[in-house]
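User: My collaborator sent over this chain with a note saying "see what the structure looks like." That's all I know about it. Can you take a look?
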Amino acid sequence: MSDSLTPEEKQILLKLARQAIEAAVNGEAPPPPAPASLTPSLLADGASFVTLTKRGALRGCIGALEPYQPLAADVCEHAAAAAREDYRFPPVEADELSEIEIEVSRLTLPAPLEYRDADDLLAKLRPGVDGVILRDGWRRATFLPQVWEKIPDKAEFLANLCYKMGAAPDAWRKKHLEVLTYQVEEFRE
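Assistant: Without extra context I'll predict from the sequence alone. Here is the result:
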């Protein structure tokens, strides 16, 4: 990512995410960030995913694939949603807050990945670098680049992504799916 955030901007986003999570757990709206305290990069439209972990295990992850609001607001919205609205987990409770660790992933714009067939798709994937979006009609799913750490095998990665999308695990081999890739700038508390 060519326009990386400064260490100070990353700390501001992590602080905003923490405040949003605490507010959400208490049934409150997150406090809006004061625009005067934000840099142009944080006020510019940006897409983010906020991942919550507890003792190293996933506890929630929600985000957007394309920018539609200022980055600071995007991080706040997705931090609160990751804590309370990820359907895979019960809502985060107040007694868990001290154990929750926050990771923010700022996304580049997704770009189509052209490929001929399943073998060509495997050859073009870049583990650890690319986040991948699969689309098949109205269904879609994504894995952030960090998922490669847990699923380093390209074929297994795609099979799991198809499963997440609600398709057969071998759909990527049998059908020409729309594939997009993106990169992230990730940072954590």
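A starting point for your reply to your collaborator: The two ends are 20 Å apart (CA to CA).
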